[in-house]
Each structure stands twice: as structure tokens, then as C-alpha cells.
Amino acid sequence: MNITSVIEEKVAAIGCYESELNKTFMQLDAILVLSRFWARELGQKDGYFEAFEISRQCVDASFFTTIANKNHQPIKQS
């Protein structure tokens, strides 16, 4: 995905979270280098890109029924 138009906003947004500042992969140079890497992988000479993986998991409906029933066990009376 081309993020060239929002790369500055991305960097600024990450900078707002103190928890992210100590992560090596969230350092400014790492963000820019990785974004440039993905651009080159896609044959782009300029710009910044990100890679995404779409993951979908299917669960049988009975799974939710089982979970709901386990959470609503009757209370034992003394």
C-alpha cells in the first residue's frame, strides 16, 4: 500500500506513543528504510509503501455457543 502521502503523519503518530519509542523497529530510520524497501520490492523508485497480510479465520458457530454456556454456569446454593 502506498503511504507516501501520509508518511509524515505516520511518523508523527508513532511519536505520540511513549511505549513505541524504545522499540528498535519503530525508530524513524527503521520506519523509513522498511517503507523504502517495500517500495523497491514493488518496483517503485520513489515513495514509501507498507506490506499487509490479510488473515481470516473461520470458526464454527457452535464454538460461540460452547463459550457462552461455559460462562453462564448455574450458581450453587448452600
Features:
78 residues, mainly alpha, 4 helices
Mean pLDDT: 86
Distance linking N and C termini: 61 Å
Helix proportion: 40-55%
The Rg value, from CA coordinates, equals 22 Å
Order of SSEs, N→C? HHHH
Task: Describe, in plain words, how this protein is organized in 3D.
It is a single chain. Helices cover 49% and strands 0% of the residues. It is mainly alpha-helical and 78 residues long. It has one domain. The protein is elongated and about 70 Å long. The N and C termini lie far apart (61 Å).
Offer a concise description of the structure:
The protein has 78 residues and is mostly helical.
What is the fold's blueprint, element by element?
Layout: H1 7-15, H2 18-21, H3 28-41, H4 61-71
